[in-house]
């Protein structure tokens, strides 16, 4: 049996996924949680083979939870199952240690196939998203530009961002200007929206 932990903040979605997976003779859903902070404790308690994680959840997001599992329970492999079919999220998920990435509007048999492949030691990425990622490429933002834009998205002033990131206000302005140029935005708020929409933040 392949033991599965499900993490999704929408109870209806979580329940529907569990019901679909329990129809398979070789799959067993051993835990269901609704927050990212509950993932690691539930995994430590139930020892799943696969953790099926949504990206956006209260507490820690699915990408942070995937990184937690990679560090603390390397025997548990992670699949991100989300509505976000964006190359930036795929890249961040793989960097966090996920072995699979499935979009929620995929057919159920594709999700089941992904679970079996990842359990067998392979990787699985939604084919349409994989093709888009090859065409779209990685984030054009540097790590520091990403940090500054993420802080800007939370509404802080240049001084607030400088204090938070321990940078000078001039350095923050330079990073914001560069990020605005790379995203082809007009304002830092628009740059943050575009970057978030592409999964770069």
Describe this structure in words.
This protein has 201 residues and is α/β, with parallel strands linked by helices. It contains ten helices and six strands; from the N terminus they run E-H-E-H-E-H-E-H-E-H-E-H-H-H-H-H. The protein has a six-stranded parallel sheet with strand order 2-1-3-4-5-6, sandwiched between helices. Helix 4 links the parallel strand 4 (77-82) and strand 5 (100-103). It is elongated, with a radius of gyration of 18 Å. The two termini are 37 Å apart. The model has no long low-confidence stretch (mean pLDDT 87).
What is the radius of gyration computed over CA atoms, rounded to a whole number of angstroms?
18 Å
Largest sheet report: 6 strands, parallel
Q: Percent helix among the residues?
A: 40-55%
- Strand proportion, as a percent range, falls in 5-15%
Overall average pLDDT: 87
Low-confidence stretches: none
User: Quick one: overall form?
Assistant: elongated
What's the helix-strand series?
EHEHEHEHEHEHHHHH
- How many distinct helices? 10
Structural class: alpha/beta
> How many distinct beta strands?
6
- The end-to-end span amounts to 37 Å
Order the strands across the largest sheet as they lie in space.
Answer: 2-1-3-4-5-6
Characteristic key phrases:
alpha/beta, six-stranded parallel beta sheet, 53% helix
């Amino acid at each position: 049996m392949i033991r599965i932990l499900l993490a999704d903040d929408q109870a209806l979605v979580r329940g529907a996924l569990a019901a679909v997976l329990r129809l398979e003779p070789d799959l067993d859903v051993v835990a269901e949680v609704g927050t990212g902070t509950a993932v690691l404790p539930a995994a430590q308690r139930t020892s799943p083979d696969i953790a099926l994680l949504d990206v956006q959840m209260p507490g820690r997001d699915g990408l942070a939870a995937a990184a937690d599992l990679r560090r603390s329970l390397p025997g548990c492999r992670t699949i991100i199952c989300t509505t976000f079919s964006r190359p930036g999220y795929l890249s961040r998920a793989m960097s966090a240690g996920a072995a699979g990435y499935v979009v929620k509007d995929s057919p159920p048999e594709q999700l089941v196939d992904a679970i079996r492949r990842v359990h067998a030691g392979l990787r699985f990425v939604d084919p349409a998203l994989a093709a888009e990622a090859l065409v779209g490429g990685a984030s054009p933002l540097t790590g520091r530009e990403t940090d500054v834009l993420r802080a800007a998205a939370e509404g802080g002033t240049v001084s607030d961002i400088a204090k938070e990131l321990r940078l000078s206000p001039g350095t923050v302005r330079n990073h914001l200007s560069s990020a605005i140029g790379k995203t082809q935005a007009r304002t830092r708020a628009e740059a943050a929206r575009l970057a978030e929409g592409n999964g770069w933040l």
